[in-house]
Amino acid sequence: MVELFVQVMHPSILFPWFMAMLFGIFAGATPGLTATMATALIVPISYYMSPLAGLAMIIGATFTAIFAGDIPATFLRIPGTPASSAATLDGYQLTLQGKGGYALTLDLICSALGGLMGVGILIFVAPPLAQLALRFSSAEYFWLGLFGLSMSAVVSKGNTFRGIIAACFGLLVSTVGMDVTTGHPRFTFGQLDLLSGVGFIPAMIGLFGLSEVLKLVSNRDALRQPSIASAVKISLRKALPVVWRHKFTVLRSGGIGTVIGALPGAGADIAAWVSYGMAKKFSRNPDKFGTGADEGVIAPTSANNAGLAGAWIPALVFGVPGDSITAIVVGAMLMYGLRPGPLIFEQSRELVNGIFLIAVLTQFMLIGVGLLGIKAFGRILQLPRNAVIVIVLMFSIVGSFALQNSIFDIYIMIAFGIIGFYLEKNDVPLPPLILGLILGPMVERNLRVGLVRTQGDFLPFLTRPVSSVLAIALFITLFGGPILGLLRRLLSKYAAKRNEP
């Protein structure tokens, strides 16, 4: 183990690893430049390096990019990556209260802890979790998607009905494009650009980024003020006790993130929303969520990096990518002459141990690199808001265009920015809309494919063991609270009658 540590810390590995982490901070904090894009850009650079150096660059960049996506989400309410959209809720509210540095310090610590949890589970229980992931069929993914959608009721601050309306609108938008079973165009209105559906990244940038710009522009008095009133203060001493106080939230969210990350196609963004919803369900103060609750920052960010580590489980054990990032990783391994699968633990055991060690050390290095990123971004936000919104607009346009080099995606971003502005003006929450966009294709595809397999019979969706567990969990999430409240009222009335003379 000591020899492996010395090998990993050699300058030929350590220097490109550290530089990749700095690039991950830049890519994650820039809306539109996702962790997937960062990974894709690094693979060609790592081609002439040793497999361990190349994989160190990939691991370092992806973990830091997932965290860095929370920086603009917290400071500006613009998610840097899709997995950061849940950070726009409580993190941004803390920034409005002058606690942006504190929120991101919590975020950074929990990102590292979530990553350590995910990597620990990856090391010790990868084969059993991968076996569970491979048991998931269309029925299980359908219920998982519905379970995620049920979080729209949880994350809707104040008005559940309007939250459900927003989620339904997101589901409606997600149906645009080619029909999943017939291949027939739907709601494209003759636009070839819509055949592949409405781009999630430009829609998200518009909803959270451009809508905030429009809100600021409509308030002229605030334009000359800095985006954050004072210098960003980072206090690990203040944040660590808070994390310890909510240690069970960290553990629960890290576990949820790892399990969901291990499911091929699920991803860290779904893990973040589910963890946020579960944290609110189990919280003693659920009303504080959405107003700057510490748990609302801790839960999604603990799940993000844990989900990223979880996605490596099926990738390493079976060669089945857990998400788009590990799909690139599997391709990179094949490029290095490695074949992911059960035999990799026997044929390339030293390399696998090196990957595990790099993943663990990355979580500790993330603290230092993340603090640099927070400080650098905080300096930019000392500029007046009229300068900052120009920067935000520029990154929003570049980020929307960069994903597919499409001008049409810029139009999508603008359209959703206007929609988001008017929805918020009428107190309609935006997070459920994002949930609908993310999970709509997953729910529809797995429902229809499952029904095709069963020739229209829905019963197998309920009788499969894992499906029935997920269906029961969904029922408890939606109706458990009201049923318990009704039982308590009935019991109190019964007790009152018994006590009557």
Please sum up the structure shown.
The chain is mainly α and 501 residues long.
- Give the topology string: H per helix, E per strand: HHHHHHHHHEEHHHHHHHHHHHHHH
Specify the helix fraction band.
Answer: over 70%
The strand count comes to: 2
Average of pLDDT: 79
Could you name the ranges where pLDDT drops below 50 across 5 or more consecutive residues?
none
Strand order of the largest sheet: 1-2
Largest sheet: 2 strands, antiparallel
**Shape summary:** globular
If you compute it from the alpha carbons, what radius of gyration comes out, rounded to the nearest whole angstrom? 23 Å
Binned strand content: under 5%
- Structural class per helix/strand content? mainly alpha
Count helical runs. Answer: 23
* Euclidean distance between termini CA atoms: 76 Å
Could you describe the 3D structure shown?
Strands 1-2 form a two-stranded antiparallel sheet. Helices cover 73% and strands 1% of the residues. α8 crosses α13, α10 packs antiparallel against α19 and α10 crosses α20. It contains 23 helices and 2 strands. Among the domains are: 309 residues, no CATH class; 37 residues. The longest helix is centred in the first third of the chain and has 35 residues. It has 501 residues and is mainly alpha-helical.
Please name the defining characteristics of this protein.
two-stranded antiparallel sheet; globular; 23 helices; 501 residues; mainly alpha; single chain
